[in-house]
Amino acid sequence: MRLKTSLLKEPKHKELASCVGWTTADELYSCSEDHQILKWNLLNNETSLVIRLPEDIYPIELHWFPKTIGGKKQVQAEIFVLTSTDGKFHLVSKMGRIEKSVEAHKGAVLAGKWNYDGTALVTAGEDGKIKIWSKSGMQRSTLANEGSPVYSVAWSPDSDRILYTSGRQLVVKPLQPSAKVTQWKAHDGIILKVDWNSVSDLILSGGEDCKFKVWDSFGRLLHSSACHDYPVTSLSWAPDGEVFAMGSFNTLRLCDKTGWSYALEKPNTGSVLSLAWSADGTQLAGACGNGHVIFAHVVEQHWEWKNFVITLTKRRSMEVKNVLNDAVDILEFRDRIIKVSLAYDHLVVATSLQCYVYNSRNWNTPLIFDLKEGTVSLILQAEKYILLVDGSGLYTFSYDGRLISSPKFPGMRADLLNAQSVSLSNDTVAIRDQNEEKVILFFDIMSGKSVGDGKPVTHKLEVVEIALDQCGPSSERKIAFIDKNRDLYLTSVRHLRKEPKVCKIGSMVHSMAWNDSANILCGIQDHQFTVWYDPGVVFTDKELLSKILYIKDGSEFSRAPHILSYVGTKVTLRQGDGSLVYSSVPAYPAILHEYSAAARWEDALHLCRFAKSEASTLSRFMSPRCLDALHESGHGNEKDRCLWACLAGMAMANRELSTAEMAYAALGELPRVQYINFIREQPSRESSLAHMLMFSGQIQEAESTLLQAGLIYQAIQMNIDLFYWERALELAVKHKTHVDTVLAYREKFLQKFGRKETNKRFLQYSEGVEVDWEKIQAKIEMELCKEREKAANNPVRSSVAARR
């Protein structure tokens, strides 16, 4: 990716150009110390004079009133705020008429910005004051009074905090008077420019120490650049928060949000004093110290999927290359390309007016449909559906261009959504709530309505990234998410009016991705590349979780790698320096998932045995020294143990007890093998199901299953086995049966440990109930006989998995 720049031979402004601002994607206004405001039309390359300002007005910063608020277009007349050296800010119409001039500061007004919904204006001055104004220009408050000039300000994404410079310090101050102020030393020289992105919530700063830095909203440093030759004079985030531009003397740089540089241009511009991106994020303009206005657009952006590499060659054309046979196709578009996504054998291209959907088997005839008003800011793909996000909402489409649904919820801000806060699968859309970041909402793709009873998942901490798995039926859909502490959790999407079970499966996780064809999850965990071959095993048998991990040492990756995709057996990672690294994952677990989904359990067993025999065969050709080292490290049988652990979890989840028994036996888990045999010996399928739920740790569900089936004794005995004495007694009393059984087992338990009864309820019932073990045994045997007879009278299949 790089910037293609254009510069006129002679500057249109006679003096230093101080600021620029886009009205549309093809129209720009620029201001200069020659007192002129010029309008640049990029469609016909014409430049016209809008207004000649009075001689005492030297403009410093220009900012247009927001055109959209929460996705809705503004009906108010188009105006911009212009700050100047005379201590005033001016509200100027698009035609160039000065609607209002307001005395704001003593000395120059160095910065002025509208908030995101257009309800307030912030100004910063040479006098060190920061003031908040209404949109009509009435002062509301003085937010801060610093002792030195404030060179730059920015609004937070929710418009309730202000970021501003104070010498070498950065300050984040909430508008509420009693709220906590965040302040930190950011640079070794005076800070000249800041910007705060509304989508990624990341902060940029640059100053006289010739560095730019990237921060999170808490003031944690994410990236610090090398020292440039000259001070950083301008910075600007692209609207989607994925890239930013930096300007300095004869320098224009395009950088990724993590800080590394895509491209460096050295135009003859003098200092680039102001940078602005068009609303669709495709074009960049800069105001230059020598009077020039520089324009740039992004080219040579690349996308990869399996054997296809796609390159953006021009604003309206792309090149498709098949690396297997070197075949090249050129795709031409009528309008400017804004967003592109390539996955699941489909290329989706959003232009300013239309959406093009290409199938990788045919690049000549795309499916084309018109887009609603608004610039597409995000495209997500699943195997069957596409999700488009623009300023006004979310829309799901099929690959034949049919609109499926448009999920909505109260307070939704589509303009703030990104790939970390939205996820798509074949049946579900998941969205992290922007107003309450602990909440994850789920929507059915077909209806656009909330899934199930509409109750979202509410986590204890703020969620920073979400991802839905891509395979399996909708009833088994799961979502992985990372919270603010960088812990990784897994939970089910459809939880049938129960409180969802949220299980932690990793910690210090900085990036994650699901596989495209199997429910295998990979992530960067504590600087190691980790793969969870079957993360759903955490709901079946937590003890298996550590056995289904594939871990690769992170030494082959540089600082802070980020996972871009996980397709087939290939994982693509972007390193901290911007380079791409590919890592392969063994193919056996994906095949095992395929066999499990098709209930091909014999094939699954053959696969695990084959992997074991393969490892044994390989060991025959190793030297004794290598073999000893392999056994000492524990890697000799690690691969086949992972597969057996995966198979055990899958078999138990599908209630295929015979396969599960063999898998646990291969792992040497004798207690679990014995318990599986105990489950198989149960007199009825309800008892078997209840004990399988117990095996997975779902005690309440197991008890409910037994009570609903009328198996009161089994429910009481289950609580006795778990030493839940009070619950066992409660059930016995409630159903007026087996009170003596509970008291007998309790007495036996206390005698074993040489203790006396102290529980008042047990003392109360033991006075009036006689404990006779012969009667109790007879009663238990009668209960089991009844259960067997009831099961025999019902058409019950022998296999528990078949019953399911």
As a percent range, the share of helical residues equals 10-25%
Query: Helix segment count?
Result: 14
Task: Classify the beta-strand content into a percent band.
Answer: 35-45%
Distance between the termini: 53 Å
- The average pLDDT is 88
Q: Would you tell me the structural class of the helices and strands?
A: alpha+beta
- Rg over CA atoms, rounded to whole Å, is 33 Å
What overall geometry do the principal axes of the alpha carbons give? Answer: elongated
Q: Main sheet?
A: 4 strands, antiparallel
* Biggest sheet: strand arrangement: 1-30-29-28
How many strand units?
57
Low-confidence stretches: 618-622, 626-636, 796-804
List the helices and strands and how they pair.
Elements: E1 2-6, E2 17-24, E3 27-32, E4 36-41, E5 46-52, E6 59-64, E7 68-69, E8 72-73, E9 79-84, E10 88-93, E11 98-103, E12 109-114, E13 120-125, E14 129-134, E15 139-145, E16 153-155, E17 161-166, E18 169-174, E19 182-185, E20 191-196, E21 203-207, E22 212-215, E23 221-224, E24 234-237, E25 243-248, E26 251-256, E27 261-265, E28 272-277, E29 283-288, E30 293-299, E31 302-305, E32 308-314, E33 317-322, E34 327-332, E35 337-343, E36 346-351, E37 354-359, E38 362-370, E39 378-381, E40 385-390, E41 393-398, E42 403-405, E43 422-424, E44 428-432, E45 439-444, E46 457-458, E47 463-468, E48 478-483, E49 488-492, E50 503-506, E51 509-514, E52 521-525, E53 528-532, E54 549-552, E55 562-567, E56 570-574, E57 580-584, H1 588-597, H2 601-620, H3 624-633, H4 638-653, H5 657-667, H6 670-680, H7 685-695, H8 699-708, H9 712-721, H10 725-735, H11 739-752, H12 760-768, H13 773-793, H14 800-803
Antiparallel strand pairs: 1-30, 2-3, 3-4, 4-5, 6-9, 7-8, 9-10, 10-11, 12-13, 13-14, 14-15, 16-17, 17-18, 18-19, 20-21, 21-22, 22-23, 24-25, 25-26, 26-27, 28-29, 29-30, 31-32, 32-33, 33-34, 35-36, 36-37, 37-38, 39-40, 40-41, 41-42, 43-44, 44-45, 45-46, 47-48, 48-49, 49-50, 51-52, 52-53, 53-54, ...
Helix pairs in contact: 1-2, 1-4, 2-4, 4-5, 5-6, 6-7, 7-8, 8-9, 9-10, 10-11
